[in-house]
Amino acid sequence: MISFSVVIPSEKGRAITIPGTILVAGGAGYIGSHVVRALLDVGYDPVVYDNLSRGHPQAVPPGVPLIKGDIGNTQTLGRTIRDFRVEGVLHFAADSLVGESMANPRRYFENNVSQGLVFLRTLLEHGVKNLVFSSTAAVYGDPVVRPLDRLATDRPTDGHLSNQEDLLYLTEGRPLRPTNPYGESKAFFETALARYAAAYGLRAIALRYFNAAGAHFSGEIGEDHEPETHLIPLVLKVALGQSEKIIVYGNDYPTPDGSPIRDYIHVDDLAQAHILALKVLLDPERPGGFKAYNLGNGHGYSVLEVIEVAREVTGRKIPLEIGPRRAGDPAILVASFERARQDLGWEPRHPDLRRIIASAWEWHRRHPGGYLQQARTPGNQKPLPGRPSLAE
Description:
Helix content: 25-40%
Number of helices: 10
CATH architecture: 3-Layer(aba) Sandwich
């Protein structure tokens, strides 16, 4: 097999060699598929490893190898690592529905934790020690306001209700107190990464997402979950006439318009953060170990604001109904991404809510049936030049 490398300049003027193969576990999913495209854009050579239980093979770009397998399948995973000479891993392969995790916690502990630990063991047994982990803001649980967390916003006013004097900024220094099995499984895996880094030389970064949103600006890939639980695609389904109305869970929160405020981050910005994190891990002159970073806009929008901006973007009526509060929903969650800015050189390039929703609308408008309109099966596309074909 032929392997290749790409050399890019670092911030210090040194040349950094990008290894030929990066394994993207869960690369057929929403965020993973966007990261695969970002890897290709900067010269990385990705291979997607996904059991396709919730991922979409149609989301994987032509020419990128797609291997169907579970992260706990040591034989298939080990063979993939050997055949493709994997040097770094991006780990998105986990279940991620909060409500489902409450109803079926066993699934989350078995898949996200038990199989995740088998995944780590297999990587280390094959000499792979560079790992970027897809984590979540759910590891923080329900935040309690502390004086140090209340920061005055200094962003220019743009007319949105959420430009209030104070917002609750979550920093990485807050205790991890998840309130559901999904968050608990992610927090436990972060603990395992830290312990494995200390004991076995693993180099790992956990990226804690807030509300991932939007779609690739080409309109070719986007968000397609079953069931769908995220606010923006649910709102856009109403705009498409696929749902009758959107339910707003509570309008009596201590926020300017009474609805909860959240931090929405464009999926392409998340993808760029993974590239920067991977670059850090693959730089032998950067320290190893484990570190976690928040990824968000550092600016919040309320549920009602999201709906109103969606009406403006789509030009459609979007009926809403006020429902009761959901247990455990905090009033305001906004990320501090200062650590990522300082260490990774990352900050969001697409923070505007209108732009985020417009990209999502383009995807949903062009693909009202999601990926069901397309067709691809593992192994039915030619591998990239010099790459072996491997499909289960």
